[in-house]
Amino acid sequence: MRLYADSAKCCGCRSCLVACSLNLFTENNPRKAALRIVPHFPEPGVYEVKVCTQCGECAEVCPTGAIQLNERGAYHVVADLCDLCGACESVCPEGVMFVRAELAEHSWKCDLCGGCVQVCGTAALWIADEKTN
Amino acid sequence: MNGYGGSILRVDLTSGKVSKQPTPAEVAQKFIGGRGFGAYFLYTEVPAHADPLGPENKLIVSSGPLSGLMVPGAGKCDWTTKSPLTGGYASSSLGGHFTAEMRYAGIDSIIFEGISARPVYLVIDDDKIQLLDAASYWGRGTIEVEVALKEKHGEDFQVAVIGPGGENGVLFACINHDYGREAGRGGVGTVMGAKGLKAIVIRGTKSIPVADMDEYRKAGMALYRACIEAEGLKPWQTYGTTIVTSWCDEVGALPTRNFSAGSFEGGSKIYGAVMRDEIVITDKGCFGCPCPCGKYSHMKRYGTYVEGPEYETIGMLGSNVGLADIQAVAQANLLCDDLGIDTISAGGVIGWAMECFEKGILTTKDTDGLELRFGNTEAVFKLIEMIAYRKGLGALLAQGVKRAAQQVGKGSDKFAIHVKGMEQSAYATHNATAMLLAYMTCDVGAHHNRSWAITYDLQVGRDLVVPEKVARIIWLQDFRPMFDVLGSCRLQWVELGIDRDLYVPVLAAITGVHRTWKDLEEVGARIWNLTRMFWARENEGFGREWDLPATRFYEDPPTTGVTAGQITKLEDVQRLLDMYYEQRGWSENGLPTPETLERLGLRSMIAA
Questions:
Q1: Cα–Cα distance between B330 and B310 in angstroms, integer?
Q2: Which phi and psi (to 5°) does residue A44 adopt?
Q3: Do A28 and B70 touch (CB under 8 A)?
Q4: Which pLDDT score, from 0 to 100, does residue A131 have?
Q5: In this structure, what CATH number is given to the domain that contains residue B452?
Q6: Most buried among A78, B303, B422, B449, using CB within 10 Å?
Q7: DSSP bridge partners of B11
Q8: Is residue B460 in a domain?
Q9: What backbone torsions phi and psi does residue B123 show, to the nearest 5 degrees?
Q10: Could you say which of A26, A42, A103 has the minimum Cβ distance to residue B305?
Q11: Do the Cβ atoms of B143 and A42 come within 8 Å?
Q12: Where does residue B526 rank: exposed (0-12), middle (13-18), buried (19+ CB within 10 A)?
């Protein structure tokens, strides 16, 4: 299972980012979310959504073993094991592995909680099996 | 204080000094935030009879306790000032993402005071706040300046910027944000320009604490669910505010050729469905909105992009000036946005000037050779530019339709469509008494958003002049603007019909203070009466006369369309006011009585 995004449907409202930060950190803070919306305005006028594909490259390079599979089959960060070395961030192909010492004491990523999907009013986000999506 | 950023940022543009003070708890208790804070600071801090364009006037930007949180449509902030257009209270609501950044930077209100000797812009990066030189941006359009400021400071900053209209003193200049969201009405951009402030660039990265996290998340999610499951979601997302264009045309509410009619023979060319098919490329939502009404459009003919046009712009720069061409309307929208002038007032003054031209009151001698006839696209484009730079006829129109008509004379005031000097927004109110009263008594002049009652008129009988109609208007005026106080959008309630009681637990969980809608409506009434007293304080002889609608709506019935031959007689207009004042607890001249002020806890403020 993984999170999917259809950028053409995204309206850039950032509801997903707040829902994500609430689930990951129990905080209201779109800058502590595990997906990204990149606006391309005034031209060509589209939002580009970047989400985790659960490819696992972050887990492979993590020297402390902090990125592990959870019960949903998603890679998530075990906070206590992360030393903010940044190896994961540098290999993430989608730019959705976050290491921001000024914002959090550990790195973070999508753990497939689905909070973002619940608040998306334009159905731009969904969770599905890679084989059936 | 839970649910608040906690600080008021004060920017003295004369000295260049920036300071913060804690958000006063007693003000939060009585006025809650957003538009309430704006009204409070305006009344208590701007000295009586201050020149709107002088150093004593203030520009107050306020978010509300819901802003930036997981609440549908929590992307609204309020811009309040003494209006240079009307001489009274101005409060304009801005959507987009600006208010969220304010909240994440820990700021509830920004108060701009004084005047800078040279053009500057303000940069807020959490607690790092500085005024920077704006000389290289001054004189340039809002779109390119927003691009430049994001390139310079970072794409994750939000920008609010004025254009040449605000710099040049057009009295209905707006403030542009996120390539097409505006604080549009009443000349808030004019005040920003007079202060020498070109732009505000803001980023906040702090978390917003709430009183009860679990309850907040539960209640916030319930609101999202209600929106997403609403039957009206799909059509609203598809068409946004333009969903009403065809309806307005059918019922005679679409302003046509300077409000001389309410139905437009070219209407079908500017309907929402045509716009969606022909020019819309992306839905564009304000912060936190699951039902985005914002539409981003590409006009192939002109090779340009614009956010919109919204219904109001289609009415005012489409049918009201006789344009039956969605691409041309969208292009006119873009010109206004980039030059920083309000599309509603622009459509109002251009429609009036066209009628003057058609009647021979203005001639090509006055228009620099422009054939200012209804439907002349090039003339509309040219005139927008002339207004923004105050050139030729544009200088006259830049003062707004009330002053322009006073100067031109020759009976042109009879078709100057405004209340209190503010051009009427896009609902023709021939024989629609609730909407007419809403415009007459609106706290900023002839604007629709406080009390939108045109569908109600059609439901109950458009010509009825009864106390129930008046009560409905008062209820809407006290209730709807509360969304501007809370810092979120009203359209989830208006358009999707979600239960407004769903907001009660979320507000309580955020602030830790339980307030019912009855409590909130009392705050709404408090603000309504305070701003009424502001009008009275600032304008000698203020009273009933100021609440009269444009003459056209009681003297000059349309000759075409479904409202042909229909007006509201002046005696009925006066009856509406009699009932309104009585129900409000105001005198016969339309001023709050001492008892009313006492009841709303305003007596001591007014006396001071």
A1: 9
A2: -85, 5
A3: yes
A4: 82
A5: 1.10.599.10
A6: B422
A7: B18, B112
A8: yes
A9: -115, 125
A10: A42
A11: yes
A12: buried
d(CA A90, CA B407): 67
Q: Above 80 in pLDDT, residue B510?
A: yes
Structural domains in chain B (count)? 3
pLDDT tens figures, B53-88 = 999 999 999 999 999 999 999 999 999 999 999 999
Subunit contact B281:A39, Cβ cutoff 8 A: no
Residue B186 maps to a domain: yes
Confidence of residue B288 (pLDDT cuts 50, 70, 90): very high
Is pLDDT at B238 greater than 80 in this prediction?
yes
User: Which residues of chain A are within 8 Å of residue B104 when distances are taken between CB atoms?
Assistant: 29-31
Q: Which of A42, A103, A118 faces B221 most closely, judged by CB atoms?
A: A118
- Cβ of A13 and B147 within 8 Å? no
Question: Are B572 and B432 contacting, i.e. CB atoms less than 8 angstroms apart?
Answer: no
Residue B208: inside a domain: no
**A126 has a chain B CB within 8 A of its CB:** no
Mutate to test the interface with B, among A18, A37, A102, A116 (most CBs of B within 10 A): A18
CATH value of A2-125 in 1.10.101.10, 3.30.70.20, 3.30.565.10, 3.40.50.880 = 3.30.70.20
Verify that B284 and B198 share a domain, yes or no.
no
Q: Mark whether B256 and B391 lie in a shared domain.
A: yes
Strand (E) or helix (H) holding B236: helix B233-239
pLDDT for residue B608 is more than 80: no
Residue B1: predicted pLDDT: 87
Q: Is the pLDDT of residue B231 over 80?
A: yes
Last residue of one domain, picked from the residues B341, B375, B398: B398
**Residue pair B25/B65 in contact by the 8 Å Cβ criterion:** no
What is the least distance, in Å, from the CA of A60 to any CA of chain B? Answer: 30
C-beta atoms of A13 and B210 within 8 A = no
Chain B CB contacts of A11 below 8 Å: 282-285, 289, 292, 294
Q: Minimal Cα–Cα distance from B103 to chain A, Å?
A: 10
Do B583 and B485 share a structural domain? yes
Q: Is B288's CB within 8 Å of A14's CB? A: yes
Q: Can you tell me the mean pLDDT for B216-232?
A: 98
Q: How big is the CA angle at B78 (ends B187 and B151), to the nearest 5 degrees?
A: 85
Per residue in B363-387, pLDDT tens? 999 999 999 999 999 999 999 999 9
Predicted local confidence at residue A133, as pLDDT: 78
Mutation site for B-interface testing, chosen from A28, A37, A117 by largest number of B Cβ within 10 Å: A28
The encoded tokens of residue A125 equal 């986000």
B43 in any annotated domain? yes
Kindly provide the ipTM of the predicted complex, given to two decimals: 0.97
Domain that holds residue B368: 230-398
Q: How far apart are the first and last CA of chain B?
A: 27
H/E run at residue B460: helix B454-460
- What does the block give as tokens for B574? 């006066």
Q: From residue B290, how far is each of B120, B159, B236, B313, B437 by CA, in Å?
A: 36, 23, 11, 23, 32
At B607, is the pLDDT very low, low, confident or very high (cuts 50, 70, 90)? confident
Query: How far out from the chain centre does Cα B208 lie?
Result: 27
pTM recorded for the entire structure: 0.98
Residue of A nearest to B208 (CA): A28
Whether A103 has its CB under 8 Å from any CB of chain B: the answer is yes
Tell me whether residues A41 and B179 touch, CB distance under 8 A: yes
Average pLDDT, rounded, for chain B: 97
b/e map B328-352, b = 16+ CB within 10 Å: bbbbbbbbbbbbbbbbbbbbbbbbb
